[in-house]
UniProtKB/TrEMBL annotation:
Assigned keywords, A-Z: Metal-binding, Zinc
Domain of life, source organism: Eukaryota
Family of this protein: Belongs to the class-II aminoacyl-tRNA synthetase family. Alax-L subfamily.
Organism: Chilo suppressalis (Asiatic rice borer moth)
Protein name per Swiss-Prot or TrEMBL: Threonyl/alanyl tRNA synthetase SAD domain-containing protein
Family annotation (InterPro entries): Alanyl-tRNA_Editing_Enzymes (IPR051335), Thr/Ala-tRNA-synth_IIc_edit (IPR018163), Transl_B-barrel_sf (IPR009000), tRNA_SAD (IPR012947)
Known cofactor(s): Zn(2+)
Domain Threonyl/alanyl tRNA synthetase SAD, first and last residues per copy: 195-238
């Protein structure tokens, strides 16, 4: 079945009749994260809420104002997950969470464009793709992807976005001779009664059940974030499209502003300043360690010369390191003193080290405790 959202992906409101409403405990899957659910699955005569498919996550929306938290395709039906039941036979007004849907449309159409350019101009076919809560990636069937290819692909995709090339959906039957041109990337098995082909001008034609923009200009911009090794023999190319680019840029600016406040200097100096801080910290740590070793020697001498000789020593110094404690213990070996040393981990107030040393009979009893 072709749903209303697949006929017109820009429809934000729609009315349809409730066909079925059953209780369910099927979990909710949100960008790969699974969570428990108890509620209802509602079937409607038709829907503008997209059920997950083709790599595109499901929509969120409302049925008569009642929240739809998941939509899944089961055979020919779309199941709407709600926390409250809806009466069978009644008409309900549907509303799609447009911000979420349009974001998915930008990422999904962006992926088609990206995959087409990588395959046609760089011989790098896409084997799968992922649309996550923050980032997306295409998985390429190669380990030889370099930064020049990434830059050229990003430039080319953005040039095509500026050309405002129309994106059309063609419907064909399984035996259509034109289908040879299209690929079967990500097409669910239950989508093959009527085949949808998403065409980006003359650049690409791809079978897909997802919702797409109607013109490349609606993508605004595509940003490739770089490559990382994928599964065996594969490379993942991370990307962002449209609003995600501006949102991510804002996040980065906020982070940079916070760093500017902390480092008290402009962003272009951040790297130098952090390097200097790290270097100074290393020197400070080295100095502290030297001073602690001298202090350990001093403590050893003090205890050796104490009159009368103490029976036990207890020591807890905030700045003591395990090396310091060991050095004092070593210096007092053979003094038949019972020693109890404690030290605290930097940044972990409840974690640290306890060191005891002394005559066997004491260690056996107190060590256990
Ligand atoms: Zn697709």
């Amino acid at each position: 079945m072709v749903f209303k959202c697949q006929e017109d992906s820009f429809l934000k409101e729609f009315t349809s009749r409730v066909v079925k409403c059953e209780e369910t405990t099927e979990p909710i899957v949100e960008y790969g994260k699974v969570s428990k659910f108890e509620g209802y699955q509602v079937t409607l005569e038709n829907t503008i809420l997209f059920p997950a498919g083709g790599g595109q996550p499901h929509d969120h929306g409302w049925l008569n104002g009642k929240e739809v938290v998941q939509v899944l395709r089961k055979g020919d039906e779309a199941l709407h997950f709600t926390r409250e039941p809806l009466e069978v036979g009644t008409f309900v007004s549907q509303k799609v969470n447009w911000e979420r849907r349009f974001d998915h449309m930008q990422q999904h159409s962006g992926q088609h464009l990206l995959s087409a350019i990588l395959e046609k101009e760089h011989n790098l076919p896409t084997t799968s793709w992922w649309l996550g809560a923050e980032e997306c990636y295409v998985e390429l069937n190669s380990t030889k992807v370099n930064n020049d290819v990434i830059q050229a692909t990003e430039d080319r995709c953005n040039a095509l976005i500026r050309e405002a090339i129309p994106v059309n959906v063609k419907f064909c039957k399984i035996n259509d001779p034109n289908l040879d041109e299209a690929h079967t990337r990500g097409l669910p098995k239950d989508c093959i009664d009527t085949i949808r082909v998403i065409c980006i001008g003359s650049i690409d034609g791809n079978m897909c059940c997802g919702t797409h923009v109607s013109n490349l200009s609606q993508l605004q911009v595509i940003k490739l974030l770089g490559i990382e090794p994928g599964k065996k023999g594969k490379t993942n190319v991370k990307f962002l499209v449209g609003n995600r680019v501006t949102k991510t840029l804002q996040l980065m600016l906020d982070r940079e502003k916070a760093l500017t406040g902390l480092l008290k200097n402009e962003p272009s100096k951040h790297e130098d300043l952090v390097q200097k801080l790290q270097k100074n910290l290393k020197i400070s740590n080295k100095n502290l360690s030297n001073v602690l070793m001298e202090l350990a020697q001093y403590e050893v001498e003090k205890l050796k010369n104490a009159q009368p000789k103490p029976k036990f020593v207890f020591m807890f110094k905030k700045e003591a390191t395990p090396d310091f404690n060991r050095a004092v213990c070593k210096g007092l070996e053979g003094e038949s003193l019972f020693m109890f040393f404690a030290s605290e981990e930097v940044d972990k107030p409840k974690e640290g080290q306890i060191l005891i040393q002394g005559p066997d009979e004491h260690i056996k009893v107190l060590g256990q405790q």
